[in-house]
């Protein structure tokens, strides 16, 4: 078979010129002047990459806020003196200054991004754009031109205040939509009517609330993460006992029914590690704790493993809201000042950062459900709504 295409007519010169011009413009849209494909938005550098690239180039770096640099080898994590600088790192728990990038904060950004004004930034992941050059004679970023939370937004955006928990339309209905002192008061009124256990009953309750999901004969210790037989409870080395996350001596309470027996801050823990923690504040840093991987301590603070830092924070948030001094128990508070003041414990800035960095997991949620349904009849609202901590204490 012969295919007849017919006569092909030549194109008019003006039409040829028009087609060529269109083709050139189309290619120009796909090719940069250097002859390469147009650049896509660059992936932010890691902090370690930025530390190794101190050449003055303008870059965007992503990292976790870990404190405020005040000298070449000094980064403070609480009691921030001003809003002039941030230290960021690739890990929210980083304590080595050699692994941090020091970020200068120009005056236009200080009210939203300075730690004195926004201490809850601690532990949050942010993107920062500026020149990679030394600050405080340390790898850093200067001439900073942009800041953003890694997920978008700014730290001074109003925090969400409800609508995502299955308890919102019932248990939390009076609190949903509130913020600040109004939210605090509403939550206290919701959770302060609870069944109070004896200290002996706490042994039995913890065997339920802290049960190992992979071995129903065991409990999981809070700080060590060790799975240990429920029957190995007591006061001897190698056993587990009842850890008060809000230390008794710091709250001014005993083990009579009340805050000293409140399951929302009592956890199973190794006897020896419990003794090491003692009544110390919670903070980052120190020396390694024997028998507790990724735990650290110094003379006045204790740092648990990363995967339970949020758990610790949310337990303390609960205690500060549940016990307001109106039911014969002390008014428990959270503090930014280390020390042995009663009835308070800290460090609040660190706890807010831990709450953001370590999300609620299934173990924590199950524990909240069991305490509510089987033991005390009340819930920890900061497990159901972690964002309420910032809405109250930011």
From TrEMBL:
InterPro entries: Endonuclease-I (IPR007346), His-Me_finger_sf (IPR044925), YhcR_N (IPR045939). GO terms for molecular function: endonuclease activity. This is Endonuclease. Keywords: Endonuclease, Hydrolase, Nuclease. Residues 45-148 form the Endonuclease YhcR N-terminal domain. PANTHER family: ENDONUCLEASE-1 (PTHR33607). It holds the Pfam family DUF6359.
């Amino acid at each position: 078979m012969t295919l007849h295409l017919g006569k092909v007519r030549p194109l008019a010169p003006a039409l040829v010129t028009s087609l060529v011009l269109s083709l050139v413009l189309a290619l120009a849209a796909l090719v940069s002047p250097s002859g390469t494909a147009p650049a896509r938005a660059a992936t932010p550098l890691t902090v370690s990459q930025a530390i190794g690239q101190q050449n003055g180039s303008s870059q965007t770096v992503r990292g976790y806020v870990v404190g405020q640099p005040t000298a070449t080898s000094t980064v403070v994590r609480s009691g921030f003196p001003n809003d002039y600088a941030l230290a960021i790192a690739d890990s929210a728990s980083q304590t080595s200054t050699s692994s941090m990038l020091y970020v200068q904060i120009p005056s236009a950004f200080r009210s939203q991004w300075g730690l004195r004004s926004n201490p809850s930034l601690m532990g949050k992941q942010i993107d920062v754009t500026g020149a990679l050059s030394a600050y405080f004679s340390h790898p850093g970023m200067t001439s900073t031109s942009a800041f953003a939370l890694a997920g978008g937004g700014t730290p001074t955006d109003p925090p969400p205040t409800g609508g995502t928990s299955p308890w919102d339309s019932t248990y939390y209905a009076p609190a949903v939509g509130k913020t600040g002192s109004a939210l605090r008061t509403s939550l206290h009124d919701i959770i302060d009517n609870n069944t109070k256990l004896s200290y002996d009953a706490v042994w039995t309750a913890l065997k339920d609330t802290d049960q190992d999901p992979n071995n129903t004969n065991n409990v999981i210790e809070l700080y060590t993460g060790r799975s240990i037989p429920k029957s190995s409870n007591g006061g001897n080395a190698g056993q587990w006992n009842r850890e008060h996350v809000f230390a008794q001596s710091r709250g001014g309470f005993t083990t009579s029914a009340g805050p000293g027996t409140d399951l929302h801050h009592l956890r199973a823990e190794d006897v020896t590690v419990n003794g090491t923690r003692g009544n110390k504040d919670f903070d980052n840093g120190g020396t390694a704790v024997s028998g507790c991987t990724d735990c650290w301590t110094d003379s006045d603070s204790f740092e648990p493993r990363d995967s339970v830092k949020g758990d610790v924070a949310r337990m303390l948030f609960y205690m500060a809201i549940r016990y307001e001094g109106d039911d014969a128990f002390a008014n428990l508070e959270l503090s930014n000042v280390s020390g042995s003041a009663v009835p308070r414990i800290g460090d609040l800035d660190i706890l807010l950062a831990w709450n953001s960095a370590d999300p609620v997991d299934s173990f924590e949620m199950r524990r909240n459900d069991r305490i509510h349904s089987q033991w005390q009849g009340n819930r920890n609202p900061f497990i159901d709504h972690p964002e309420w901590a910032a809405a109250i204490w930011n």
